[in-house]
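Table S5 (text form). Sequence records supplied for joint modeling of the two-component complex.
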Amino acid sequence: MNLRYPAVVCLTIGLLLLSILAAAAQGSFSLSWSEVLEGVSVCLWNEQCDVSPIQQQILLDIRLPRILMALLTGAGLAITGAVLQSVTRNPLADPYLFGISSGAALGAVLAMSLMSGAITATGLGVIFNVTTGALAGGALSVFLMLTLAGKSAVQVEKLLLSGVAVSFMLSAFTSLVIYYSTPETASTLLFWLMGSFSGVDWSELLLPFVTVVLGSAIFFVFSRWLLVMQLGEESAATLGVPVHALRLGLLLVSSAITAILVAEVGGIGFVGLMIPHIVRLLVGNQLQRVLLMSLLVGAIFMIWVDVLAHSLLQDQVLPVGIVTSALGSLFFFIILKRRQSR
Amino acid sequence: MMVQPSASPAGVSKPYLSVEQLTLSLGRKPVLKDISFGLSRGRMLGIVGPNGAGKSSLLRAIYCYRYDQKAHLSGQVRIEDVPVYTMSRRDRACKIAVVLQESNLTFEVSVFDVLATGLTPRKSLLSFTSENDRACIRKVAADLDLTAFLERDFSSLSGGEKQRVLIARALVQQPDILLLDEPTNHLDIQHQIEVLGLVRSLGVTVLLTIHDLNMAAAYCDELVVLSQGELIATGTPKEVLTPALIQSVFQVTASVEPASGPGDQIQVVYSMPQHAGTVEEVGAR
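The corresponding structure-token record, covering 627 residues in total, follows.
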């Protein structure tokens, strides 16, 4: 059984690489695997290659950025979910539970609806765009949550409750903004809220990449303490763990990851909730294993969700959020059935 | 009524652990009032008293856990003259290990991993669990007869087994002082005897809270009696557990008799009401 975990990790990494290739070959303009392989290797530095410039352009400028964004989103949301489930000792915790996504969505929606109006004309659009709007909104929601919880923020239940309250409040504002938008803006906003990886270019990948990598590194460093905290906060405190500071810090890192991902791709739910549970079925509960595997499985899952979103309907791209929510609810029915039958 | 602390075996030397004028209040509500006592190295001290007397609060005050923002604590605890309250968290965790009443786990954790958390204060965040650490964990597990459980899920164990695992974790911590909060709670009589015997055999300095006066008398070298946050008596069980004290603190009539067996052990015999009768009968009286 000692060899099982490394084997599972290697297999998953292999599966991830295969998924990237397969996803790159998929699409309305289909490419063969060899073309994909050649396109990302030989053709980069060699003029002599069998892939046509147009194929090369589709591969490098459209598909790869999209796939990598899906990968980062899946990995980031899944590991954040795993961490939050441990921090709150609540198996239903999720990056969206604390109102972070509602805040980010509100910021983005405000930015979009204002951009269509006066701000673009004054050139402020460069500073106040969807990304910065979402970041500001995400930060606002964390600030509100901590303020609302006040001194009782040391108790995890109260923190959760105030997160839920903030989430509903900001969602209401988002709905209000959409309600007062012009029909065209409203449909753009709604589509954005449901999440999509389309139209991503390389420059947009930088910030999510840095955040997910740095955030995961922080999670891994503190995983030793996080495990202790799973056994109860008081006993963690007796083992020298600064419980409150640790929880607040991990919460802020989680917020940053979520807000930046929401800013780039919109609202994509259920991933942070579902993937850690699947991972625990695969490799057990050891925290470091759950974290690493959540990164990998989350990435694979999201790449395939994106492929599904592109191929389910002809000539139309389904919003990614719809696919994840549908799969997520199905997943919970299955879990529920299995629990009952035991 | 105040029984003076018994002289430590070493005579004039200072106690190993000394609790000095601990006063704790939650807002305006006093929880502990000016508690002072000492304990020599390797001795086992039981804290007894009715529910709400402040037994667990006293333990928490010793291991410095602030469970409430409104809690205000004054006084000092010293181990070999070193003040505990000014130590860093980690230094404190290297000296004092705490066994709390069993907690429920959300996710499965193996017994080995539970034991490994005992290494936390001595390991930096970036270090890995070394072969040395594993050997230490396996040795403690073997000493406490837990080897067969190492791969099991902690939640699947029985109450007595969980308690043994938590004690083992505290030993992995290699503490100078071991604190236990009601280690016999929810355990049947066989496991109560087993757990207290185990703690007794460890040879470390122990403080524990306990409800059963006979168990306390049988296993503890010294007792501290608390009532409504005040220290009523300290001393050996024989000195402390008198019918008058039991009557005044617990409102129960009891006689104290020498226990069978070696030494000057005692046994508390409660005088139970003959037959309480049904609710109607009691009401009619």
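Note: The first helix of chain A runs from residue 4 to 25.
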